[in-house]
Amino acid sequence: MNATPVEVVADSDAVEVLGLHCRITNRLRAASIFCVGDLCRTTARDLMKLPGFGTKSLHEVEAALQRAGRSLRAEEQRS
Fold first, then answer.
1. Exposed, middle or buried, 4 (CB in 10 Å: 0-12/13-18/19+)?
2. What is the pLDDT along the chain (79 residues), one digit of tens a residue?
3. Number of domains observed in the structure of the chain
4. Where is the RNA polymerase alpha subunit C-terminal domain (predicted)?
5. CB 30 within 8 A of CB 43
């Protein structure tokens, strides 16, 4: 895992540029999340539904995106 800040991350960059643990990257790829843009269009709730993806994985993803100046999609407000 790479804890150093990522400078510029484009939507088309592979999720590997975020420096996530291999296990998390494998879970994302199994869910057809291959690039940073795919990940940023995903909600935390969606990620938590993935098999083997727990709270620690979610926190690691959120921290990596934050270092890159990005974030997961916000949950939609229900009326």
1. exposed
2. 555 555 678 999 999 999 999 999 999 999 999 999 999 999 999 999 999 999 999 999 999 999 999 999 998 766 5
3. 1
4. 13-66
5. no
CB atoms closer than 10 angstroms to residue 48: 12
CB-based contact 15:39 (threshold 8 Å): yes
Amino acid in the structure at residue 48: M
Q: Which residue has the tokens 């940023």?
A: 40
Whether residue 8 is contained in a domain is answered as no
Q: Crossing angle, helix 55-67 and helix 22-30, to 10 degrees?
A: 100
